[in-house]
Design brief:
Blueprint (H helix, E strand, L loop, with lengths): L1 H27 L4 H7 L1 H21 L1 H19 L8 H28 L7 H28 L4 H26 L3
Helix pairs in contact: 1-5, 1-6, 1-7, 3-4, 3-5, 4-5, 4-7, 6-7
Amino acid sequence: MTGLAGMFLAATASMVIEYVLTLYLQQIRGWSSLATAVSFLPFCVTMIVANQVSAPLIARFGVARIMTAGGLVSALGLGSLAWIGRDTAYASILLPGQMILAAGISLVLSGAAVQSTANVELHQAGLAGGVMNTAMELGPTVGLTVLMAVAAAQADAVQGYAWAFGTSGAVFVVLAIAASLLFAP
């Protein structure tokens, strides 16, 4: 179950950063669509690199440690984005937050995929994969809805974005604790 929760949360975090930062950069900061899109390239590159190293890390350290680390790294990235303000610098706050979050999401996704399909009998592998993909599809839909409700509870849009990032980061801390307790060898 924690594997599915990790899949759900990692997919949620991926959508939250894309949606909220796009709104922030375009509506609050006045960036063009092209500049906003380019600002996400480091996030994408970091995810690609982190995905390449996550499998060997899981093999070496195990699912519990990697999901715990991924949850904490994701929380760190989201926590840094929770300091967002009207004039937050891209290079010193937003860029590192994006890259840290991307690395954490990759670790969580990889660990969650292993955990969600571990010990599944061969004849039920398709079912397990389908349930895992359902969690990944529900994450952005349900998670973004909840986090945008958290954001909308604030009178100021930027403060609402900060609350959405902070809330998501807190949930990743809970995931990390759950992963360390439930999967401990």
